[in-house]
Amino acid sequence: MSVIPQENSKSRVRILPDDLANQIAAGEVVERPMSVVKELVENSIDAKSTRILIEIEQGGKKLIRVTDNGSGLSLEDAGLSFLRHATSKISSSSDLEKIVSLGFRGEALPSIASISKVHMTTSADEHLGGVIVLVEGGGSAQTKETSCPRGTTIEVSQLFYNTPARKKFLKGDGTESSHITQVVTQHALAHPQIHFTLINNGRKVIDVLPTDQHLYRIAELFGAELAKELIQVDTEYGDYRLEGFISSPVYTRSSRSAQYCYVNQRFVRDKVILHSTQQGYSHLLPKGQHPAIYLFLSMDPKLFDVNVHPAKAEVRFAFQQEVHRFVSGSVKDSLSGSKKLSLPMDHSENRYHTTSQSRQTDHRAVPASNFSEDQSSTRLSSAMELLYMDSTECSVDRESRGIMSPQVEIFHEKPSAVSNLIYSEFEPLGQLDRSFILMQGKPGILVVDQHIAHERVLYDRFKKAAKNKKIEVQQLLFPLTMEYSPSEVELLIHHQDSLSELGLELELFGKNEFLLRTVPAILKNNDKEEIMREIVDMLPAQKHEEALFEKFEDILIMMSCRNAIKVNMSLNLDQIRKLISDLQETEMPYTCPHGRPIALLYDMDSILKKFLRK
Ligand SMILES: Nc1ncnc2c1ncn2[C@@H]1O[C@H](COP(=O)(O)OP(=O)(O)OP(=O)(O)O)[C@@H](O)[C@H]1O
Ligand SMILES: [Mg+2]
Hints:
By secondary structure, this protein is an alpha+beta fold. It is 35% helix and 22% strand. The chain is built from 20 helices and 23 strands. The strands form five sheets. An eight-stranded mixed β-sheet has the order 5-4-3-6-2-1-7-8. It has a five-stranded mixed β-sheet with strand order 9-10-13-11-12, with helices on both faces. β21 (505-509) and β22 form a beta hairpin. α9 runs parallel beside α10. It is elongated. 40% of the residues are buried. The protein binds adenosine-5'-triphosphate and magnesium ion (MG). Magnesium ion is lined by residues 39, 42-43, 103, 108.
């Protein structure tokens, strides 16, 4: 048996005092105010609360107060709960393999209390009274008896007051509070039976009433419009079950902001689930677009390990490939078996059709053994792929802009010869496939992409008007009411002024609704709701000058693209002439705002050579 040597005055290796050890642990558990909210809310959920109120001030930096009506703590337990490794949730190493609570490490409260000032009031039974616990900067807990209702209130003030280096890294109040809104949204989604309220500087940001339906909770947080686009997922395979909702491929977002995945009701950022879901959609999604997903995976706790990182945002599956196959198969089957999929076909200007067979299939839970590609879904995928070809026109990503082909390409000849090509020297002949304008002139035959040529014209006009703050707006006779999730509301409030400069005048209406009062005149015939949805996805979370400029530039491009003449549209010669002369007036008439070439020149010399006339 080995003997552990005692520390003495000569030893260089020493055991750190508890308050310092707690501060070190806090480095991993508490990254920012959002982490405190996460830990406190998780404790309230573990305590079986049905009502959780979160109040914050100054992005949580000044104050975070979480009140619940859960089991509360007795006088004795209240004092113990601030000690390191003190937990009521596990007691032996075998418990580690079957964790059913959100917390289990017994380090959240001592970590938080080591870097802030904590005031807890709690009672396990209001008839027996309650207790107040005070801890400051990791000092010892002071307790005092009191009377209070059953449940717990924990107030965390002056976060990082004794660790200035950490405090320095905090962002502005707006950014910190949007992280908090996000974490409360994540928990509210997983626990529809709990009444959650989030109050930020006295303003109610989230207030969702209890319900036994996940879909109602989603609708309350993200709006009924989105909920209408959702398809139910409910599949089971061996030890796994996947429940929840995914959007039909018609409803997509340009970011992953509407993707929420859970394992046994714990929110996780898990690559396996996200990747397998995306794979389940296979070719149904336009390039660069993401579905909305609310997926709850459940399994025997023995089949995954949550003790990967102190923040517990990651899990490790025992059989990763099995999980991947199960999730992607479930998503695929839910999509192909759903009636919702017939929707995009109805809107497709009758250009592409799916078989009536796949349109009529009823949605039902499909066993995982059916995951092999069935014919109808393959057929459906290719039809959807064709359907989305048009809508991907605008999605050239920034990285690829730099490696675009020359502005005006010459057929096998030196590009410099036509770098200052003048469109007016060409005479329009007509259209090719109702999508490209054909023109002839001395230099040869010019082929102009009508969609991107018009996009360039609109973009230039729009940009000029935005710069001079002279965007022509259209007042909406009936302002449009749109619902947003709490974090989207925060974003919109943040960018309200800049959006109004683009002609989008928004007014906060109630808790999570905005009234859209004006739109830029060029968008008056577009689907305003869809455009607003796209814009919200594009808005940057942080007010970083450069990021802002880039994003608003993207919004301008998107709005121009939306309104530009489409491919597969007839134009008469007058319309063609007008478009070409407008194009000539722009600052850069040879590339679209994404960097793609607008025109290709098949030069006369090459044509003559090919016909052996030279
Ligand atoms: N709101 C609450 N209601 C009832 N009991 C609570 C509450 N908050 C904390 N506790 C008790 O205090 C203990 C310590 O909480 P703490 O968050 O530090 O650890 P944990 O939740 O057990 O594990 P983890 O560090 O993983 O969160 C918990 O195990 C629980 O018994
Ligand atoms: Mg905890």
